[in-house]
Write a structure and sequence with these properties.
Blueprint: E1 8-13, H1 19-31, E2 35-40, H2 50-57, H3 75-81, E3 85-91, H4 93-101, H5 107-114, E4 121-126, H6 130-134, H7 136-147, E5 151-152, E6 156-159, E7 165-169, H8 173-184, E8 193-198, E9 202-204, E10 210-212, H9 218-229, E11 233-238, E12 250-253, H10 257-267, E13 273-276, E14 283-285, E15 306-308, H11 312-317, H12 320-323, E16 328-335, H13 339-350, E17 354-359, E18 368-375, E19 378-386, H14 387-401
Parallel strand pairs: 1-2, 1-3, 3-4, 4-5, 8-11, 8-13, 11-12, 13-16, 16-17
Antiparallel strand pairs: 6-7, 9-10, 14-15, 17-18, 18-19
Helix pairs in contact: 1-2, 1-8, 3-5, 4-7, 9-14
The protein binds cytidine-5'-monophosphate (C5P).
């Protein structure tokens, strides 16, 4: 919960009903350790008061370029120089047009223009009615802002305050917060494609029952998020789990091991990195009954027989691209004892360059974990931390070992 520690963010509000979400966003930024300086346009004050934003940011809000509180009377210079980033949320259609033109007749657009463009990035969270959003003028302005170096955070879709339904809503505060956190992460995997398997598989016995493994999917989802934060194009192939898909990650839902293998084999031929965190069921029932298997009154349980499932990781690791190092494969081992020995043996058996061990029962369903990285050089321990913090460290370790994109 301290992903923005040491960061100073200018949060700019412009005129739009989504200003109500800016209050929650401000609180989220502060909770993550950022200091937040709110700057509001006159129009935004029609929707939310500076009092609210001051209370949430714990700093007086700036609303005018003539603010005499600054000794040199240059808030546009002072505020933009101390910022790590300027985030405009909500950014109205009008404010986008003003930015495109380089207008500077009020404080917020003035400080955007005055910012040191190479070091203080401008993040934009548009918010407007769907027709305004779809209008060629807005789309043209978006393209120009991107060409001028701004980062466009996209919009949400759905019911709008005006009663219409479509694209143009401001993203939810939690989504924007994830985007801002991602923005500050080093882009160690920019331009790479990463495929992650996550969660358990479920192998049906009949329409009602099946066998499965313990796995919340949290570690795999954290790795998918961390890889995305590092700039990768990420696909998570998920068994049955109840987890929100990380921002910007494509998700393919599967149930059984065979479905997971098919999805993995469809995605990995274009990938640079494959991380197998899924807890795949080793066996599946040899036959799947089309109807519920009933008790027959004899007191005897049904005779069940099993077939071994394909080993997804070993299959991918044997592929031609993995063998010549174009696809870097990472395996996981959840053990209950002798972690180092088991992890070493598993690395050899699966034929992967990097194997990550963890003690299964002490991590199932938890938000934190402890990892052991085993490669040809030896063993490195990543001490107990949140799964997301560990995932970021693991991504850095993978980036160091995997071949640069396109080689
Ligand atoms: O053999 P074991 O299940 O302990 O190996 C664990 C590693 O292999 C994990 O990375 C897991 O995702 C992967 N695995 C797999 N397909 C299987 C079994 C395991 O990809 N059928």
């Amino acid at each position: 919960m301290n992903d923005l520690a040491g960061k100073h963010i200018v949060l700019g509000l412009t005129g739009g009903i989504a200003c109500y979400k800016a209050a929650e966003l401000c609180r989220g930024l502060v909770k993550q350790g950022a200091t937040v300086q709110v700057v509001m346009t006159q129009a935004s004050e029609q929707f939310i008061t500076p009092v609210t934003m001051q209370a949430l940011s714990n700093r007086p809000v700036f609303t005018s370029q003539w603010d005499a509180r600054e000794p040199n009377n240059m808030p546009h210079i002072n505020l933009s120089r101390e910022a790590d980033a300027i985030l405009i949320a909500p950014c109205s259609a009008d404010f986008m047009a003003r930015l495109v033109q380089g207008r500077s007749d009020e404080l917020l657009s003035l400080l955007c223009l005055a910012r040191p463009i190479a070091s203080v990035r401008l993040l934009i969270a548009p918010a407007m009615n769907r027709e305004m959003w779809a209008h060629p003028a807005t789309q043209r302005n978006m393209a120009q802002l991107a060409a001028d170096g701004a980062t466009l955070l996209g919009v949400g879709s759905g019911l709008q305050a005006c009663g219409e339904t479509g694209d143009g809503r401001m993203l939810e505060p939690q989504e924007l917060l994830e985007d801002v956190i991602a923005f500050f992460q080093p882009k160690l995997l920019a331009g790479r494609k990463v495929v992650v398997t996550a969660g358990p598989t479920f192998e049906a016995l009949d329409p009602i029952r099946g066998i499965t493994n313990h796995s919340s999917g949290k570690m795999g989802f954290a790795i998918a998020r961390a890889a995305r934060e590092a700039g990768a194009d990420v696909v998570v192939i998920a068994g049955p789990v109840r987890l929100a898909t990380p921002r910007g990650v494509r998700r393919v839902d599967v149930t059984s091991a065979r479905q997971m293998l098919a999805a993995t084999e469809a995605e990995t031929p274009q990938a640079d990195v494959f991380v197998a965190t899924a807890a795949v069921a080793d066996w599946r029932p040899a036959t799947e009954s089309g109807q519920k298997i009933k008790k027959d009154g004899s007191g005897q349980p049904p005779a069940l027989s099993f077939t071994e499932n394909p080993d997804i990781l070993a299959t991918v690791a044997r592929s031609e691209r993995a063998q010549r190092g174009a696809l870097f494969c990472v395996g996981f081992a959840a053990e209950s004892h002798d972690l180092v020995d088991n992890a070493r043996a598993k690395r050899e058996r699966k034929g992967v360059p990097l194997l990550v061990g963890n003690i299964g029962p002490s991590t199932f369903g938890q938000d934190d974990n402890q990892l052991l990285l085993v490669d040809a050089q030896g063993v490195v321990e990543l001490p107990r931390a949140s799964k997301l913090a560990l995932a970021r460290q693991l991504v850095a370790e993978i980036a160091r070992r995997a071949r640069p994109a396109g080689t």
